[in-house]
Amino acid sequence: MPHTSIERPQDAARQMLAEHRSRQLLDAAARLMEREGSEAVSMQALAAEAGVSVGLIYRYFGSKDDVLLAVIVQVLEAFATQVPRAIEAAGEDPVRRLSAAFAAYCTVIDEHRHAAVLTYRESKSLDPAGRDRIKRLEVETSQPLRDAVRSGVESGLLRTADPDLVAYNLLLLAHAWALKHWYFEKTMTLEAYISAQLALALSAIVAPTSRRRYADLLSPS
Amino acid sequence: MPHTSIERPQDAARQMLAEHRSRQLLDAAARLMEREGSEAVSMQALAAEAGVSVGLIYRYFGSKDDVLLAVIVQVLEAFATQVPRAIEAAGEDPVRRLSAAFAAYCTVIDEHRHAAVLTYRESKSLDPAGRDRIKRLEVETSQPLRDAVRSGVESGLLRTADPDLVAYNLLLLAHAWALKHWYFEKTMTLEAYISAQLALALSAIVAPTSRRRYADLLSPS
DNA sequence: GGACAAAGAATGAATCTACGTTCATTGTCA
DNA sequence: TGACAATGAACGTAGATTCATTCTTTGTCC
Question: Are A76 and A66 within 8 A, CB to CB?
Fold first, then answer.
């Protein structure tokens, strides 16, 4: 049926433009938040930062909510791609995989520090539907962490009463790097934060018999 | 010098009224946040909820910032009184004291769930001075937790490379009960949350030789 | 190839709305 | 009657949204 699915080249071009604009605007939002804080993102400021007119934003986003939602979703998508990749690269050992996953979480957070905080603003902006979407995505993107803990437990290397709680705590600690950056930055770099938190978390759950094997993770230099 | 400190009964009455109004308004703010979320607190809504006029608020608070600041300070003051009391009541054992402190933190958070979240809104509302004050207070009120961990370490019952990090993490986990209530409430009560988190945190730091002694804390029923 | 439409992209001043704040007025004791 | 408490309509402003207009690209016909 060639008629029902005509591939018009204009459409492709249009979609390309739409994607370009979208990226352009989200990048501008990120820069703005980085420089002036996340509450400084007004539509006029965003337009100025992106070098476009206010009206144009509304061609590509339905509302300010939509823009903020997209910023948050972008972060969550970064989790969805970066974390599995890091796990993959960490080899077979479940504990190493878990460690890599946590490190990846923290790194993504660090790269989107201000955007990450957006999630915690129970703003009027985000309508219930959008908020639910974010919550769902957040739970979904924490799945790798959960899986890693579970498989560590199954293999007998880890030992814990509540794997899901362990996983969620790690997620929280990654977020905390953004939320409490003013506190942690006084005494730690990102790398130090990652290894300190990891050492602490692992020492709660590494099985006694495997402690020697992970000595490097359990007592960071 | 009777002249420099005349005790006029009117002044006492006035101060009493001021305190009453202040409490009335902060209570209304709490109710409003509870019912409609913390972003629904406009001056007009607050006035309506408290059953007073908008103008009156400005007789007792300089600005909206002041009101929000007062709400937050109220929570921090609840920490400052409740936590030491709980520690006191827990006896001599450093680990029991630490546990009691954490439980108290969580309980206070639970009682002021929506107000607690306010701290995380890097709102334009709170000016830098107010924000600094909050940060300072927050660090101050976490001192008992730090002290408890430290004395646990000193007595040899606990073992950790970074007591301050342990203490701050516990504070974070208490906050998390408010921040991520939508997640935790699906599977836990406050009591379950407290003992699960405590079990996890303690199993990372209780010295091997003391594990049996705290078996009840380490594996909650 | 050049003139001429549409269609779509982009603009930005004007509009609309939601508050925070003020203050002229009214109420209430002592 | 004066001092203080309280009111709430009116004001000011920031910022989200709209839309009439202009610019640009694409397609069409001679």
Answer: no
Tokens of residue A58, six digits: 């509304």
B200 vs A166: CB contact, 8 Å cut-off?
yes
Q: Which residues of chain A are under the pLDDT cut of 70?
A: 1-12, 123-124
The pLDDT value given to residue B15 = 78
pLDDT of res. B5: 39
CA nearest to B104, candidates B152, B69, B73, B144 = B144
Q: Which CATH class is domain B7-62?
A: mainly alpha
The CA–C1' separation of B124 and D13, in angstroms, is 15
A8-62 is a CATH 3.30.1490.20 domain? no
> Which CATH code fits B63-218?
1.10.357.10
Whose tokens are 């408290």? That residue is: B50
Cα–Cα distance measured from residue B50 to residue B58, given in angstroms and rounded to the nearest whole number: 13
| Torsion sign (Cα): B92, B96, B102, B107 | negative
Residue in A123, A169, A196 closest to B162 by CB: A196
Q: Is the CB of B80 under 7 A from strand C?
A: no
